[in-house]
């Protein structure tokens, strides 16, 4: 069978198939049987077989094979079944001595020799075509090769049959090709040029680099080069650097001489720079025993499929970022996806879990529900939430809060997404249970963790409902916007540095604390986990962000910080905070031209209150003293309690020393006023106040010690007074200090 005759037969079949109504499979397969028989003159019969329930059925027959119409045999017991299982063309030169032949079928169809090839549509074997003859050795290896290529073309016809738009396009191309065939003696050229698939003829000359000697228009369109540029180009130059899984072109000749068709998957760059993934199906082509060997290549653009695989990998990456177990399983329970969280929680590796049934692997015990009730709930409502018990790989029992979501809207069969949270140690805690329930949603859309996908240029591609809610937006308001809309200006530089490390490959993922801006302008403290998704060429395609609201933690940290610097009884600054502010005031005073002043107060008569009325009354009185002192100081002054009944007032920016005495007098008057606490009226409490003006001193401890000594001098000289050291304390070994009162 000449190549141009085979192509003409394919074109004729394409034209006929275009007229077959959608759903009329019987008519379609009968056309395949009739055209297969017509395309191979040595054949006397043709059978198109399909599979059902593990058996082969003679779906369509032609010629001498009409006697086996409707017959059914086991898949493993025939040449046709083996061809389908091995996805290769099989030849039987003498059926009488071939154990692969079903004897009953061979006798009924008068079959002395046969050749069978699988029909592959996409990545699925949909059937097989078998040619037979009543003569031994009617078919040779060349016939097997031609039937292989013919069957591959038939697979493409079957793949596109249900697509009416594609049928129309193929029919138009076919009719144009047929018109050329009818008008020209160059039938091969016409059918070759009219094919909607990219096609090339390559001379099997390794020394010349396997040069391209003929291409069709579809090939030029696919590669973006005119035919004149492609002709003469070497095979390696045409298809570029092979992917890691490809067979290098240097091995083609060895495959061809052994009559094994080759399928390659290659990434190449079009003339316009766009990268395209293609599948190459290559078979030997000769017109006779003396002709020079050529290769006929059919090229299909599979970029869309590769991109779909990339999206699937990206989604799997996103699921792996979720720390909880995420399991995707079929309706029968067979595990199809098992994320890193499941590995960490259950102790089973992904390769050990995938393919097993979930409940068998994990020995599921249902809490408050039966399996039929759970399945009924999934079927009626599309989701179920509750508690389960699972068994760890080491035998431990885990209590899980689980959410199942039925996904029946994808392109494939329905699946169940199961998200589990280990609540073994906190199953009794209602708050923990409520917090964990929000985590049980399907992947990106059902996660309670805020998630965002953005391009490298900062454009937001998608946000999940959780993040939209966190920020007060609807998800559609954010898609297409710049991520800068959500970032507080204060973290812009940190964001750029983090992104640079990710893009440069220094980090695969980073975790930082940051601040997001809500729609109303308020700020939200978050912990951000950032990672990148890379394309087939290794370049960064997207940045994936997962955001946790850490507002409560920040509030707790602020509370602890406040407690560390404030007196627990009165709420005033404590010794640590006083020391910090005093050090800062002393450091800033020389440059400001202002004076720092200190008041050291010790209550007079407080011990008698404690002894006479009790410590509760004493504590209440201390709180009231703190309130009164806080009311007499100026804005910017600090009131601190050092412990017991000792208080300090820091005035950091006095314009004149006299201002310190004014504050001290107010404090003295307010503290000495009567108190009504614990039902008692107390009039015996006053304060002894020591003043200190450190001047240009820089030691906060010394400044406080001076005020302390001044206060004790007041105590000794009569109490309820204000006193001040006229001179600062001398250095060790020095002499003299006096009190001005």
Automatic annotation (TrEMBL):
<dbReference type="InterPro" id="IPR029016">
    <property type="entry name" value="GAF-like_dom_sf"/>
</dbReference>
<dbReference type="InterPro" id="IPR052155">
    <property type="entry name" value="Biofilm_reg_signaling"/>
</dbReference>
<dbReference type="Pfam" id="PF00990">
    <property type="entry name" value="GGDEF"/>
</dbReference>
<dbReference type="Pfam" id="PF13426">
    <property type="entry name" value="PAS_9"/>
</dbReference>
<dbReference type="InterPro" id="IPR043128">
    <property type="entry name" value="Rev_trsase/Diguanyl_cyclase"/>
</dbReference>
<feature type="domain" description="PAS">
    <location>
        <begin position="311"/>
        <end position="365"/>
    </location>
</feature>
<feature type="domain" description="PAS">
    <location>
        <begin position="436"/>
        <end position="506"/>
    </location>
</feature>
<feature type="domain" description="PAC">
    <location>
        <begin position="262"/>
        <end position="314"/>
    </location>
</feature>
<dbReference type="InterPro" id="IPR000700">
    <property type="entry name" value="PAS-assoc_C"/>
</dbReference>
<dbReference type="InterPro" id="IPR029787">
    <property type="entry name" value="Nucleotide_cyclase"/>
</dbReference>
<dbReference type="InterPro" id="IPR003018">
    <property type="entry name" value="GAF"/>
</dbReference>
<dbReference type="InterPro" id="IPR001610">
    <property type="entry name" value="PAC"/>
</dbReference>
<feature type="domain" description="GGDEF">
    <location>
        <begin position="594"/>
        <end position="727"/>
    </location>
</feature>
<feature type="domain" description="PAC">
    <location>
        <begin position="510"/>
        <end position="562"/>
    </location>
</feature>
<dbReference type="InterPro" id="IPR000014">
    <property type="entry name" value="PAS"/>
</dbReference>
<dbReference type="InterPro" id="IPR035965">
    <property type="entry name" value="PAS-like_dom_sf"/>
</dbReference>
<dbReference type="InterPro" id="IPR000160">
    <property type="entry name" value="GGDEF_dom"/>
</dbReference>
<dbReference type="InterPro" id="IPR013656">
    <property type="entry name" value="PAS_4"/>
</dbReference>
<dbReference type="Pfam" id="PF13185">
    <property type="entry name" value="GAF_2"/>
</dbReference>
<protein>
    <submittedName>
        <fullName>PAS domain S-box-containing protein/diguanylate cyclase (GGDEF) domain-containing protein</fullName>
    </submittedName>
</protein>
<dbReference type="Pfam" id="PF08448">
    <property type="entry name" value="PAS_4"/>
</dbReference>
């Amino acid at each position: 069978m000449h190549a141009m005759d085979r192509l003409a037969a394919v074109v004729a079949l394409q034209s006929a198939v275009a007229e077959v109504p959608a759903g009329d499979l019987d008519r379609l397969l009968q056309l395949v049987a009739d055209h297969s028989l017509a395309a191979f003159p040595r054949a006397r019969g043709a059978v198109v077989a399909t599979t059902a329930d593990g058996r082969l059925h003679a779906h369509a027959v032609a010629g001498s094979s009409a006697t086996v119409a409707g017959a059914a045999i086991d898949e493993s017991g025939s040449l046709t079944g083996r061809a389908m299982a091995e996805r290769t063309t099989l030849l039987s030169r003498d059926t009488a001595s071939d154990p692969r032949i079903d004897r009953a079928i061979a006798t009924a169809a008068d079959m002395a020799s046969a050749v069978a090839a699988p029909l592959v549509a996409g990545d699925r074997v949909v059937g097989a075509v078998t040619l037979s003859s009543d003569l031994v050795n009617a078919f040779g290896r060349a016939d097997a090769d031609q039937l292989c290529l013919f069957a591959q073309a038939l697979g493409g016809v079957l793949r596109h049959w249900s697509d009416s738009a594609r049928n129309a396009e193929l029919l138009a191309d076919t009719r144009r090709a047929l018109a050329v065939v009818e008008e020209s003696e160059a039938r091969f050229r016409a059918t070759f040029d009219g094919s909607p698939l990219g096609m090339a003829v390559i001379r099997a000359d390794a020394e010349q680099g396997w040069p391209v000697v003929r291409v069709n228009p579809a090939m030029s369109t696919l590669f973006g080069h005119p035919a004149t540029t492609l002709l003469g180009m070497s095979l390696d130059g045409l298809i570029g650097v092979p992917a890691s899984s490809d067979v290098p072109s240097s091995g083609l000749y060895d495959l061809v001489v052994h009559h094994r068709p080759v399928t390659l998957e290659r990434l190449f760059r079009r003339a316009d720079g766009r990268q395209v993934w293609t599948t190459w199906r290559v078979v030997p082509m000769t017109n006779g025993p003396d002709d020079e060997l050529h290769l006929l290549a059919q090229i299909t653009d599979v970029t869309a499929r590769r991109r779909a695989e990339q999206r699937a990998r990206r989604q799997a990456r996103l699921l792996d970022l979720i720390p909880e177990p995420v399991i995707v399983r079929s309706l029968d329970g067979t595990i199809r996806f098992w994320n890193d969280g499941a590995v960490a929680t259950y102790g089973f590796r992904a390769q050990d879990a995938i393919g097993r049934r979930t409940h068998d692997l994990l020995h599921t015990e249902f809490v408050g529900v039966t399996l039929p009730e759970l399945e009924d709930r999934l079927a009626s409502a599309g989701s179920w939430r509750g508690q389960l018990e699972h068994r760890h790989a080491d035998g431990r029992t885990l209590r899980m809060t689980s959410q199942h979501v039925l996904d029946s809207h994808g392109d494939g069969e329905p699946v169940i997404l199961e998200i589990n949270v280990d609540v073994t140690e906190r199953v009794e805690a209602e708050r923990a249970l409520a917090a964990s329930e929000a985590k049980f949603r399907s992947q990106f859309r059902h996660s309670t963790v805020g998630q965002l996908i953005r391009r490298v240029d900062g454009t937001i591609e998608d946000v999940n409902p959780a993040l939209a809610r966190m920020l007060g937006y609807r998800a559609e308001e954010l898609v297409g916007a710049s991520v800068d809309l959500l970032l507080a200006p204060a973290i812009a530089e940190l964001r750029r540095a983090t992104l640079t490390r990710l893009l440069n490959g220094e980090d695969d993922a980073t975790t930082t604390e940051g601040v997001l801006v809500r729609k109303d302008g308020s700020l939200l403290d978050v912990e951000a986990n950032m990672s990148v998704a890379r394309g087939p060429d290794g370049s960064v395609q997207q940045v994936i962000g997962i955001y946790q609201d850490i507002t409560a933690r920040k509030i707790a940290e602020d509370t602890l910080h406040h407690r560390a610097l404030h007196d627990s009884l009165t709420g005033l600054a404590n010794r640590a905070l006083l020391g910090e502010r005093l050090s800062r005031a002393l450091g800033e005073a020389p440059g400001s031209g202002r004076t720092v002043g200190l008041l050291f107060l010790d209550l007079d008569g407080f011990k008698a209150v404690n002894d006479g009325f009790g410590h509760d009354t004493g504590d209440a009185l201390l709180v009231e003293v703190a309130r009164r002192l806080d009311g007499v100081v100026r804005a910017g002054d600090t009131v601190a309690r050092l412990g017991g009944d000792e208080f300090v007032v820091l005035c950091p920016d006095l314009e004149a020393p006299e201002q310190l005495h004014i504050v001290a007098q107010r404090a003295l008057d307010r503290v000495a006023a009567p108190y009504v606490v614990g039902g008692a009226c107390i009039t015996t409490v006053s304060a002894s106040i020591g003043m200190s003006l450190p001047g240009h001193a820089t030691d906060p401890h010394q400044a406080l010690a001076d005020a302390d000594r001044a206060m004790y001098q007041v105590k000794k000289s009569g109490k309820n007074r204000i006193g001040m050291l006229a001179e600062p304390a001398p250095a060790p070994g020095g002499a003299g200090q006096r009190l001005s009162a």
